[in-house]
């Protein structure tokens, strides 16, 4: 791998945009105001997206471009201010992902009947703060590793460089994309003239077969961003779970008798059997990912500890502005201080007070859990930070890490307790384990470290001061922690989450599936109640092994991938969540195929033109994701007030079949518009 693989074109390898000897304003009043606004807005958008499909889109590029457009109105604005806004908004989005991926499991398990505001805030503050502290000693070791390319960081660096050159068109692409995405979402979820899904299932005497389409603009754009490899892996999962799985399982288990229509039968088979196949595939996929990267992760952690030890002994000092972190002894003191309220939170709020254990054993469990949060959190933080540099934050196996972190704490508690019945005490204890797991997930930086390390790399490329970036990270955690709970509660009141509704009579088609939280609930509940669909999980595990073999073959022979976790996600997700990602990924491949035909590779001038088209497509789709997701949050307000997701509906019931046909046409027009906009010559 080339040592120059992670440098921005036009810059010397180790030369940042702003040299270390130049000092510019970085944390200013306008940076704080813009950063807080974008943190709230993008956290809200990603909360909706995370609950809808189980993925979030990094806020780094949208926040960088939006702040770039705003800061253009200030003549003395500089690129380091852009960097600070971007990192603050990014950690807010990352913290939202960590919360939205696991805490809704408490709703799905019926441990909570609403999002507990202060417990969610405190969990976010403590876990998020510890996660930021973990990244500080890792920064030096991982950013100096020349084998780590940080692909998203290079892309963000180019966006920020564009702000210095005052390049036009970036903000325009985001605004246009956001407007189109928001309008389509308004007509789908609000007015319901369009629909975000189209299903056609038929039943015979012994089986059910058919197909479904997802037509969400946010998910189509998200699929475009993640690319064709993930899209094809999702398509493999869809073929296994839906095109083959539904007919085969309906023949093996018989047609469901508790529902009437073919569509309802297909969904019943998915809920009862197919999603457990996805769980098995994702479990084995996550474990395999850990095994294959065990050696580089151990090396990375060893390097991190060596760097920390050298700094503490005074053997390694840096006087350059661009190498000044928050002093390491402050980091250790802050980490110890945070562990005290974490212990108290577990002892007096997370472990149920009515649980029949002695006070001494309660304190032992709390201390053991706190110790696990510290060690396990730093270990998983190191893993995810390494992933960010190795393959980028978009492709990192967050699902596998989530399951692994939760399974470990489940297995530990199973060693302390023996549950045979699914009673109230079992439910409360599983809720406690999920809450403890959420602290591990958040502090581990399964989301935070992933995005944060990319942003710290951007700061290195731009010439930002590390300790100021770290201060903005902490501020972003504080701001996001206080706004995430009401956003989640608003979405729950408006749509329902994971099959749980706050009131009867709500439209299940509008429900937020929360697949990641559903997976966490399934794993935790199944581990203790011993009623998981082990046959289906075993089938999923076998599918994972086959996919791993195919993936290794493709990687060695053709340089391409079949990510096993994406296959598992395709099996696990409902069709209206997975199919649009496939559509977007195939569209990105079509665009790239056409660009390869227009611009021969190897010529720097044509490569620059090709990158212009790619950049335009990325920004356009980021705008669509942000606009459609934000519209979902905005619509949640009238839905919650009227206590109905049909509050703005204007399409008569008798014309609803036409909504599906019209939506297919609009989706085709959206894809054609994206293609033409991206291919338009600069």
Question: How would you describe this structure to a colleague?
Answer:
The protein contains 23 helices and 2 strands. It is mainly α. It has a two-stranded antiparallel sheet with strand order 1-2. α6 packs across α16 (448-462).
Keywords:
disordered N terminus; 682 residues; two-stranded antiparallel ribbon; mainly alpha; 2% strand; 72% helix
Chart the SSEs and their pairings.
Blueprint: H1 29-53, H2 60-71, H3 79-102, H4 104-108, H5 117-143, H6 151-165, H7 170-190, E1 197-203, E2 208-214, H8 217-226, H9 228-253, H10 262-292, H11 294-312, H12 328-350, H13 359-390, H14 398-416, H15 424-443, H16 448-462, H17 466-495, H18 515-529, H19 534-557, H20 564-572, H21 575-598, H22 604-642, H23 656-679
Antiparallel strand pairs: 1-2
Structural class category: mainly alpha
What is the residue-mean pLDDT, rounded to a whole number?
A: 79
Number of helices: 23
Quick one: overall form? globular
N-to-C terminal Cα separation, in Å? 32 Å
Task: Report the β-strand fraction as a percent range.
Answer: under 5%
Q: Order of strands side by side in the largest beta sheet?
A: 1-2
Count of extended strands: 2
Largest sheet: 2 strands, antiparallel
Stretches where pLDDT is under 50 for at least 5 consecutive residues are 1-13
What proportion of the residues is helical, as a percent range? Answer: over 70%
Radius of gyration: 24 Å
SSE order, one letter for each helix or strand: HHHHHHHEEHHHHHHHHHHHHHHHH
Seen as an oligomer or otherwise, the chain set is single chain
